[in-house]
Amino acid sequence: MKASDIREQTREELEAKLNDIKKNLFNLKFQKAIGQLENTQAIGLMGKDIARLETLIREKELGINQDLEPKKTVRKKKIQAAKKTTAKKAGKKEDKKTKTSSESK
């Protein structure tokens, strides 16, 4: 569940989704208590989803972040920059290798 997807929903929809997630969390905790829960990580993920929803509901109450667009990922730019630097380093290493092999002849 991404915050950018949730921001588009109304406050009533968010509260309904929050209640559903809280019910699911209760069921997961109950399953864990009786030893039937296989994926214990789901409890933590549900808790994070609850916190995310409560935060966005509160933002709507206060009227903040209404006009913000979701941030574009910076990760792609970082990956491209890392590839460029590794390519430059690889090019320098190849130059050194060719120089030493040509010098030894």
Polypeptide structure, described:
- With 105 residues, the chain is mostly helical.
- It has two domains: 1-70, Helix Hairpins (Orthogonal Bundle); 72-105.
- Helices cover 75% and strands 0% of the residues.
- The protein is built from four helices and no strands.
- The protein has helices at 3-6, 11-34, 41-62, 75-103.
- α2 runs antiparallel to α3.
- The longest helix has 29 residues, at 75-103.
Strands, count: 0
> Secondary-structure element order, as H and E?
HHHH
CATH topology of the largest domain: Helix Hairpins
Total of DSSP H or I helical runs spanning 4+ residues: 4
Number of domains: 2
**What do the pLDDT scores average to?**
81
Shape: flat
* Helix content estimate: over 70%
Query: What integer value in Å does the Rg equal?
Result: 25 Å
- Straight-line distance between termini: 62 Å
- Structural class of the secondary structure composition? mainly alpha
CATH architecture of the largest domain: Orthogonal Bundle
Main beta-sheet annotation: none
Q: Which parts are unreliable, with pLDDT below 50 for 5 consecutive residues or more? A: none
Structure at a glance:
The protein is mostly helical and 105 residues long. The chain has helices at residues 3-6, 11-34, 41-62, 75-103.
Write the layout of secondary structure elements.
Elements: H1 3-6, H2 11-34, H3 41-62, H4 75-103
Features:
Helix Hairpins, 2 domains, 4 helices, single chain, 105 residues
